[in-house]
Specification:
By secondary structure, the protein is α+β, with helices and mostly antiparallel strands. It has helices spanning about 1-10, 20-30, 40-45, 65-75, 130-135, 155-160, 165-170, 195-205, 210-230, 255-260, 295-300, 300-305, 315-320; strands at about 35, 55-60, 80-85, 100, 110-115, 120, 140, 175-185, 190, 270-275, 275-280. The strands form three sheets. A five-stranded antiparallel beta sheet has the order 5-6-10-8-9. A four-stranded mixed beta sheet has the order 1-2-4-3, covered by helices on one side. Strand 5 (about 110-115) and strand 6 (about 120) form a beta hairpin. Helix 2 (about 20-30) runs antiparallel to helix 4 (about 65-75) and helix 8 packs across helix 9 (about 210-230). The longest helix is centred in the C-terminal third of the chain and has 24 residues, at about 210-230. The radius of gyration is 21 Å and the shape is globular. The termini are far apart. The model is unreliable at about 5-15 (pLDDT under 50).
């Protein structure tokens, strides 16, 4: 996976991309929308941040074949790619001088909900609330719910490891992903999830690009496992950086969860299997006032002892700004 990232970075540094040639090739091979006009590029030049990066062009793939064709052609023309999610990121993750992939128009389907196993299979463009509404018919829900839950996509949530007020009930996005179907920049398509020691050795022994990637991840884990165990903060909302902790044996070498939060720098997500949890049928909102935010923070452990399903602090600045 390291070499995949280097290849991606090299493409990102390409001085000149033949945009017109790439647009023509994409229009010939992709059934979905290919938008290289100035208006579309301007629309996708910003996200929820102050950054502005005009993309090379925009592709709205109709299916997985379109995604494969888009990334193959981007690689051929030396163009970086960016999977946008819903553009709700607040630090510029959703804009870049790249070919932007937007899954929200065509690849936004719930493939399956299995209430017995409490698993949902979804495409990356599915809006969170659409999944939650469908799961609620079985008295289930997808736990993480950021403030943008009515428009954020599962692909975007996987990209930035979203949390939300109910993450105290069900954890972050990485805690709720069981399996991912992914595509690397060099064209390898595979499913990743938990990996037993036996499976890991078998994959590496089979060789090929897949074996090379798993061997590289194992080498990375073995080299840094002590530091990961000693230095990674043991806090519920550690969302920055790569989730190398999921490569440790005690976490079953869970490659899918290790990829959550990687912001598309390693792979493109084609499909996700998500864990569903019980949705409490009755809820009560309790508002507690404190004289300042510091006293409020001091009482959090006491509040958490009562096992709330959600917890959020609202200070005077937030009230004033809204």
């Amino acid at each position: 996976m390291e070499s995949n990232f280097v290849e991606f970075a090299r493409a990102a540094r390409s001085a000149a991309v033949d945009a017109s040639g790439l647009a023509a090739a994409l229009s010939h091979h992709v059934r979905g929308d290919v938008r290289f006009d100035q208006g579309s590029r301007a629309l996708y030049a910003t996200d929820g941040s102050n950054y502005r990066q005009v993309p090379i062009g925009v592709v709205l793939p109709r299916d997985i074949d379109d995604v494969i064709a888009t990334i193959s052609l981007a690689r051929e023309y030396g163009a970086p790619i960016l999977c946008r999610g819903s553009g709700t990121s607040l630090a510029g993750q959703c804009c870049n001088v790249a070919v932007v992939l937007d899954f929200t128009k065509h690849m936004a389907n719930i493939i399956e909900i299995d209430p017995a196993r409490r698993i949902a299979r979804v495409q990356p463009g599915v809006v969170l609330d659409h999944l939650r509404n469908a799961a609620e018919k079985h008295h289930l829900t997808f736990g993480p719910d950021p403030a943008t839950h009515d428009r954020c996509t599962l692909g975007g949530m996987i990209g930035n490891n979203s949390c939300g007020v109910h993450s105290v009930m069900a954890g972050k996005t990485d805690d709720n992903i069981e399996e991912l179907e992914i595509l690397t920049y060099d064209g390898l398509r595979l499913k990743v999830g938990q990996t037993s020691d036996g499976e890991l050795e078998k994959i590496i022994g089979e060789g090929g690009r897949r074996g090379e990637i798993y061997a590289g991840l194992k080498k990375l884990r073995d080299k840094y496992s002590n530091l990961i165990q000693e230095r990674y903060p043991d806090i519920p909302r550690r969302v920055s950086g790569y989730n190398l902790n999921y490569l440790l044996p005690e976490n079953s070498f869970h490659v899918a969860r290790a990829l959550v939060g990687s912001e598309g720098t390693c792979v493109t997500v084609l499909e996700a299997s998500c864990r569903l949890v019980e949705s409490p049928p009755e809820r009560v909102l309790l508002v507690i006032a404190y004289s300042d935010i510091y006293q409020c923070a001091d009482r959090v452990p006491e509040i958490m002892a009562h096992r709330p399903i959600g917890l959020e602090g609202v200070d005077d600045l937030l009230v004033e700004f809204t």
